[in-house]
Amino acid sequence: MIPVEVTGISISPPYQGYVVILKEKEGEQWLPIFIGATEAHTISLLLQGLKYVRPLTYDLFQDLLDAAGASIKRIEVTDLKENTFYATVYLETKGGKKEVDARPSDAIALALKTDADIFVAPHVFTEAGMRGEIAQAESAGPTREDKLMELNRRLKEAVEKEEYEEAARIRDEIRVLEKVEESRGEEDDGEEEPSTS
Fold it and tell me: Which candidate among 49, 57, 58, 82 keeps its CA 20 to 30 Å from the CA of 39?
């Protein structure tokens, strides 16, 4: 297994959703994994160390694990079949070691929440990984203005058609994009994020 770190969230052109980018810790391989807007928002919050006033799903998961005397030891992105990634969460419990199947986005969020190590199977990198600057260019996608313009157009269209569930989803995408861009701007300025924990 290859140890990786989460380098960020990016929007995928042309406006098809979000990708979480995993980078090999001791190499130049990058692995983009498509995820939903909700998962992108959660991972973005975790990367920035931000918290809601009320517990989110992953706060609840950690509290439940703590209450049960269990802990997450590591997560692995184990396979890629028909364009679908698979992951496993490895737990240490009072009854011994356990393995739980999970979506990669959920597993990655749990790893970030609990400071667990993240690994990717070598054959997954072979099938879907990218290297160096090519990966960064691929993940960059369209400009921020283009993304927001398209999302706002889709939001207006959804409201006009009274498709409020779709409008709420698009609104969440806009919020995630704004959070991601804000965090990138702060990194570019060379400022450190204040600790909120």
Answer: 82
What pLDDT does 56 receive? Answer: 79
In a domain, 195, yes or no: no
Tell me the residue range of the domain where 163 lies: 2-188
196 inside domain: no
59-66 own/partner pairs: CB under 8 Å, 24+ apart: 59/113, 61/110, 61/113, 62/110, 62/113, 62/114, 65/91, 65/114
Structure tokens at 42: 């959660």
Q: How far is CA 55 from CA 42, 48, 115, 184, in A?
A: 12, 16, 18, 25
Give pLDDT, residue 197.
39
Q: Who's near 116: CB < 8 A, 6+ residues apart?
A: 72, 73, 74, 75, 110
User: Which CATH number goes with the domain that contains 63?
Assistant: 3.10.690.10
Average per-residue pLDDT for the chain: 78
Identify the bridge partners of residue 29 per DSSP, sorted by sequence position: 131
Q: How many domains would you assign to the chain?
A: 1
Six-digit token pair at 106?
């959920």
User: Residue 181 corresponds to which amino acid?
Assistant: E
What's the distance, Cα to Cα, between the start and end of the chain in Å? 31
Q: Could you tell me which of 121, 122, 123, 85 has the C-alpha nearest to residue 105?
A: 85
Residue 193 inside a domain? The answer is no
Cα separation, 90 vs 88, in Å, equals 6
